[in-house]
Structure formats: C-alpha cells, structure tokens
C-alpha cells in the first residue's frame, strides 16, 4: 500500500508514517470505544456497526484525491478495524 501511495500522491516517508499512525490511533480508539459499546448494546450490534464503518470508509478512502482526505478516512477506517478486533 505505501509504495503505491508514495507514487500516487508524491509523499515522503514522514507523510506515510503519519497515515500509518492515524490508522493505528483509530484502531486504539475504536477498540476502546467498541469494547464499551459492546458491553452496553451487545457484540452483534456493535460488530455490524464496525463492519459498516470498514465498508464505508474503506470504499471512500479508495477515492480520496488528496493526503488530508485520505488520512482522515484512514483514521475512521481504523475505528472500524478496532471495533472488529474487539467484537469479532
């Protein structure tokens, strides 16, 4: 993924590291949030919500035109990934 991003957006290594860090931060926030939500509402419902997040933001990030949009979408994609790790 990262060599393709570097080529498509003309990114440096620091910018690629930022994208990876935002994805991991999203996973951390998602894991904590979805863990608490699954205690309140059940694992099945929160798993479905996390899968919808992954589908929506994964698809949207494939159409991102600039670095900022892509980074924000990857952050929200990380939220879904974190929810999947906990509830799946």
Count of helical segments? Answer: 4
> Regions with pLDDT < 50 over 5+ consecutive residues?
none
Distance between the termini: 24 Å
Order of helices and strands: HHHH
**Largest sheet: number of strands, sense, barrel closure:** none
Q: Could you tell me the radius of gyration in angstroms?
A: 14 Å
The assembly state of the depicted protein chains is: single chain
Describe the structure.
There is one protein chain. This protein is mainly alpha-helical and 88 residues long. The chain has 4 helices and no strands. It has helices at 2-9, 13-41, 43-61, 67-87. The protein is elongated. The model has no long low-confidence stretch (mean pLDDT 93).
Pick out its properties.
4 helices; mainly alpha; elongated; 88 residues
How are the SSEs ordered, and which strands pair?
Elements: H1 2-9, H2 13-41, H3 43-61, H4 67-87
Helix pairs in contact: 2-3, 2-4, 3-4
């Amino acid at each position: 993924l990262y060599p393709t991003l570097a080529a498509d957006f003309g990114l440096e290594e620091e910018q690629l590291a930022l994208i990876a860090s935002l994805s991991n931060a999203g996973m951390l926030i998602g894991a904590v949030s979805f863990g608490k939500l699954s205690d309140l509402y059940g694992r099945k419902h929160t798993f479905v919500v996390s899968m919808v997040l992954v589908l929506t933001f994964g698809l949207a990030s494939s159409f991102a035109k600039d670095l900022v949009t892509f980074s924000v979408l990857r952050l929200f994609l990380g939220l879904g990934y974190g929810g999947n790790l906990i509830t799946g």
